[in-house]
Design brief:
Blueprint: E1 3-7, E2 10-13, E3 18-25, E4 32-39, E5 46-51, E6 58-60, E7 68-73, E8 78-83, E9 92-100, E10 115-116, E11 120-125
Parallel strand pairs: 2-11
Antiparallel strand pairs: 1-3, 3-8, 4-5, 4-9, 5-6, 7-8, 9-10, 9-11
């Protein structure tokens, strides 16, 4: 049974930093491209960042470029999202997701992802 379990969310002041993690089990982690999404109340789920199986390729939504960094440790089956210079508009539930795909590809679309975590809340106060 595939499980993706996020952790590390919390309450932080604007300008602060958080790192959220996602531990995967029940799948061969290195065979999946990974992504982070977020969903704020009343809004659709939004792509935040993606990383290829190879670790080399990453992609970000424009609103987080230069502030967020996605990374993965295939030996630990773990995905990370380092979030710096946080803004109140970053407040959302953050989800990790896994996508089958080619070695160098990254994916932005919700429909590209096959497995999802339960989410972790990130709240940024002004």
């Amino acid at each position: 049974q595939v499980q993706l379990v996020e952790s590390g969310g919390g309450l932080v002041q604007a300008g602060g930093s958080l790192r959220v993690s996602c531990v995967a089990s029940g799948l061969t982690f290195s065979n999946y491209a990974m992504g982070w999404f977020r969903q704020a109340p009343g809004k659709e789920r939004e792509f935040v960042a993606g990383i290829s199986r190879s670790v080399i390729n990453t992609v970000y939504v424009d609103s987080v470029k230069g502030r967020f960094t996605i990374s993965r440790d295939n030996a630990k089956n773990t995905l990370y999202l380092q979030m710096n210079s946080l803004k109140p508009e970053d407040t959302a539930v953050y989800y990790c997701a896994a996508a089958r795909g080619s070695y160098e590809s990254t994916y932005r679309a919700v429909q590209s992802y096959h497995y999802w975590g339960q989410g972790t809340q990130v709240t940024v106060s002004s």
